[in-house]
Amino acid sequence: MVPHIVFYCAWQVQTGFGRTGSHFWGFQGHDVIPDMVTMAKGIGNGFPMGAVITSPEIAASFTKGVHFNTFAGNPVASAVASAVLDTIIEDGTQKNSLDVGTYLMTELAKLRDKYEIIGDVRGKGLQIGVEMIKDKTSREPLPPEDMAEIFEDVKDMGVLIGKGGVYGQIFRIKPPMCITKEDADFFVEVFNKSVHNYMERR
């Protein structure tokens, strides 16, 4: 009989490096300690780099087999990652994520109160979701083609956002962590205009 093992791995691609504002790692806001943390992209700020952090006990288990990676231990990638971590700390991007993220969510909440089709604004720091619905009575998700209209309008005005959610009804707002309040104001103005344009066509 094979023993059942519970293993928790935190994937810190989008919620790591201070993006949530209150914590350096997203999992820290949920009172859990993962067995392993994997990360990429953010640690190299665009330079190809990945990392795995785990306990000494789990790391020791890797000696029981042969593990090979052509790029493992790359000194240039390691130097880049170290510089990125230094910059995050020195520039205070985690605090900026908290401050500008809180400001941005407050401004987006005003649009939620203004428009029937914005159902919710939620998130932490600069990891924000804006839920789009048909109306506040039914709370049904805004259809994909309607989401695409707003999405394309925002893009045409110079801002890139993402989409997510079970029904694709959430606009995902994850700007660079060096964003300013002026940048946030620009985004809110663009998003407001895009939603307004959609409502006029509806």
Structure overview:
By secondary structure, this protein is α+β, with helices and mostly antiparallel strands. Helices cover 39% and strands 16% of the residues. The protein contains five helices and seven strands; from the N terminus they run βββαααββαββα. The longest helix is centred in the middle third of the chain and has 22 residues, at 93-114. The chain is elongated and about 60 Å long.
Compact overview of the structure:
The chain is an alpha+beta fold. 39% of the residues lie in helices and 16% in strands. The protein has helices at residues 56-61, 75-91, 93-114, 144-156, 181-201; strands at residues 9-11, 36-40, 50-54, 118-124, 127-132, 162-164, 170-173.
The radius of gyration computed from the alpha-carbon positions, rounded to a whole number of angstroms, is 20 Å
What is the first-to-last residue Cα distance?
A: 61 Å
Q: Strand order across the biggest sheet?
A: 4-5-7-6
Biggest sheet record: 4 strands, antiparallel
- Mean pLDDT equals 89
Indicate the overall shape. elongated
Keywords: Aminotransferase, Pyridoxal phosphate, Transferase
Subunit structure: Homotetramer.
EC number: 2.6.1.18, 2.6.1.40, 2.6.1.44
GO molecular function, one term: transaminase activity
Tags for this entry?
single chain, 202 residues, three-stranded mixed sheet, elongated, disordered N terminus
Helix-strand layout with pairing:
Blueprint (H helix, E strand, L loop, with lengths): L8 E3 L24 E5 L9 E5 L1 H6 L13 H17 L1 H22 L3 E7 L2 E6 L11 H13 L5 E3 L5 E4 L7 H21 L1
Parallel strand pairs: 1-2
Antiparallel strand pairs: 2-3, 4-5, 5-7, 6-7
Helix pairs in contact: 3-5, 4-5
